[in-house]
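Researcher: I'm preparing a figure for a lab meeting and need a structural model of a single chain. I don't have an experimental structure, so a prediction will have to do for now. The sequence is pasted below. Please return the structure as tokens so I can convert it later.
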Amino acid sequence: MVLPMVTMAQLSPSGQVKVITPNVLSACARDTIWLELTNNDGPTCNTGAGPVQTVQFDITHPGTGQIFYQPASVGSETNIASEVSYTGNTLSMTMEVPSLDNTNRAYFVLNATCDVTDVSTLPQLDITANYPTAFPVATESFKSVKMNIGVGEITFTHASSSYINTVRTFNQTINHAQYITNTGFGRITELTYHQIVHDSLTGSIQNKDWAYIRRVSPSVLSPFSLGMDAYPDYQMTNLGNGYRYISFTIKGAQLDREDGQFDPGDRIQINASYLRAPSTCIAPMNQTQWVTYNCVGSGTACAEPDSLVKTFRISAGTPVVAAVNSTVEAWDGCPEKAASFTFKNTGAASSSNPEVGTAYDVDLGLTFNGNCRLQIW
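Model: Understood. Here is the structure written out token by token.
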């Protein structure tokens, strides 16, 4: 576990307990609360025969369901903390007492719902510490620093407006980037990517749908480049209308290799259009993409920006078919006169895409007067 990026600390009256809370309690996200217990004037040693001495903490959070403890999230770096109970809004946990002048640290996790802003006042924690014998203070109570409330907000944009309408030739590959930005005031711990794409637009890497993901702001981190089926919670549904629906979750290191969360101001690049155009002419095809973020432990979307719709058109080039020469025997009333016409496609081809400029289903129109017989070879 890591400390939140911006934290606030509050000491107990005796100075032996410090509670470290995030500056912002984020809607729809997990926030880690840390407790530090320093043995300033208790027993000189907590080892040897007999039970290990512990301090019990009773921690009460506000709200009527907008804030709740994440079950089984009490932990520590050295396995010295345990959950006792969670009843109503009160978590009870214990932490082993360190030797004199030493400090032990433990943590637990609070979740907040989309409507955490409905809490009447800025949330803070009420903490009671119950010390064992040999401590000069048996019990003390204090409050954490008040936490602000922040709600994450996501924007989803094309890297280039030229992507909205794309023309490709037969079998040509496609690779487009989009950006996801947290423009709100709360951190986000999970994103869900969605797309609906035409079945004729197939995956161009390993013949599967692919996604390249990396944080690009405030600094560039190394990317993940995986088949979509390798990301968490992958789903693919054949919609039965020539389109398929795909979704997967972006969380943990795939969301941010540094701290596993999408903080205000962070930006992620996602390339999820590694596609290959079909090899035959087809009507315009669409790809629709959108991103949501859900409250932790809930299937409800907290925010969903506008969808990005791209239209792909297939062009086989522009053939230019014209007659380049003709020979016709003079018409003198005798039968079996011959006429020869040569047509040539003078459209520009491409070495990488030889289909460009190819003419298909050419209609040839000829007009004759009199009694004529036509042969074509």
